[in-house]
Amino acid sequence: MTSSTPPPEPDEPPAGPSGDQRSSARGRDELDELRRRVRALESTERSAAKRHHWFRSTGSVLLILLASLLSLLAVVAVWANSIVRDTDRYVATVGPLASNPDVQKAITNRVTSVVLAQIDVEALVKELEQAATQKGAPPKAAELLGDLKGPITSGLKSLVSDVVERVVSSSAFDTVWVNANRRAHSALDKALTGESDSAVSIKNGQVAIDVGPIVAQVKDRLVSAGLKPAARIPAVHTEFVVFASEDVDEIKWYLRVLEIIGSWLPVIVVLIAAAGVYLAVHRRRALIGAALGVFAAMLLLGITLTVLRAVYLDHLPAGASEAAAGAVFDALVKFLRAGVRAVGAVALVTAIGAFLVGPSRVAVLTRTGCRKAIGALRDVSVSAGLPLGAVGRFVHRYKQWIGGVILAVAAIVLFTWNYPTVAVVLWTLVIVLIAFAIREFLDSGTPDTPSAATPAA
Description:
Elements: H1 19-85, H2 87-94, H3 101-118, H4 121-134, H5 139-146, H6 149-168, H7 171-183, H8 187-193, E1 200-203, E2 206-210, H9 212-224, E3 239-244, H10 248-261, H11 265-279, H12 283-314, H13 322-332, H14 334-356, H15 361-383, H16 389-397, H17 399-416, H18 422-442
Antiparallel strand pairs: 1-2, 2-3
Helix pairs in contact: 1-2, 1-10, 1-11, 1-12, 1-14, 3-6, 3-9, 3-13, 4-5, 6-9, 11-12, 12-14, 14-18, 15-18, 17-18
Transmembrane segments: 60-80, 261-281, 288-312, 338-357, 401-419, 425-442
Protein name: Membrane protein
Keywords: Membrane, Transmembrane, Transmembrane helix
C-alpha cells in the first residue's frame, strides 16, 4: 500500500505589515515632517520679512516727515542768512522802497512834521511885526500881522510839504537811499544784536529808519527858497517807524539762530530725505512722497507768510503808516517768497519725474510716445545720411550712466545757484528734457560689440 504525501498547506498571512509597507509609512511620516518644517520655516521667514519691512517703512516715513518739516526752516534760514551776509542782496531788498508811493508819502508826512516842529511860527510873526513897524507901517497893519499865525502856519505846512515831496520823489533821493543802505548793510546784524547806531535800529520793540539826512536836504531847499528861519533848524535825527511789535526780541532770537544754521540746514535736509528714500522698501514711491512732503511744506510756509502779514499790520502802533509798513514787509519777504516758490517747483517737478518713470499706464504711455516720436525722427535723419556710428554705439552702451550724469548736473546747478527762482527751475527742467531727448536721439540701438548682438545678449 502506497502512502501519498499530503499537499503542502498554504502560508499563513503575516501577523503585521510587511517591510515595504513599513518603509512606505516611514517615508510618508518623514515627508510630512519635512513639509511641516518647511512651512514653519517659511512662516518664520515671512514674519521676519514683515517685521523688517515694517521697521524700514516706519523709519523711512519718519525721516521723510522730518526732512519736510526741516525744509521749511531751511528756506527761512537761507533767507535770513542772505539778508545779513550779502550786501547786494540786502540792497536789492530795500532799494525799491525809495520809489514806493506809500513809503514816500509816509516819509513826507514824518519829515514835514519834524521840520514844522523846528520852526517857531510865533517868533516868525513877531519878526514880521517888527519889520512892518520899522518900515513905518500903520499900527493897525502891524496888529493885523499878529492875527496871521494860523494862515502862516498853514502856508508853511504847504510849502514844507511840497519841498519834502520833491526831495523824496527825486532821483537824487533814490541814490541817497541806496547808498545809505549799502553803507548801513549791517542794519540787520545791528537789529539782531540789539545795537542802534545804524540807519536801521531796533529800540523799544520798534524797527525805525533814521530820516535825518532828508531833513537836512529839506532845510537847504527851504533856505534857497527864501525861508530864512529854516536856517535855524538844527541837525535832527528823527526815526521813521516801519515795524513795531512786542515780540521783536523773540523774533530777533529766532532770526539769529536761523542765521547761524542757514549754511548747513539745507544740506542736512537733503541728507535726511536721501536716507529716508534709501531706507524705504519702495524707493520710487518714497521719492514721490518726499517731494510732495517738501511741496506741502512750501505751501504751508507761503500761507503762513500771508497770515503773518495780516497779523503784523493789525498790531501796528497808533500813528504808524499801515501802507508803508505793508510795503516794507513785502519788500523784506520778497526773496523769501521767491525761494518758497523755487523750492516748491523743484519738489513738484521731482514728484512728477519719479511718477513718470514708474509702471503706471500713464507713465508707460508717456515714455512710449516720446520714445517713438524721437525714434521716428532719428530714423528719418539716418535715412537722410546722418551717421551715428560710434557715437550711437557709445550712447547705447552707457545710456543709463548718461542719464544719471544729466540729473546729477541739474541737481548740482540748482543746489549751488545763488537764490534760484521759479524761472531758473523751469529753464533747468527744459534743458534736462532737451538733454534726455538728445540722448534718445543718439541711441542707435546698435550694440557696441558683435557678441552683444546675439539673442542671448
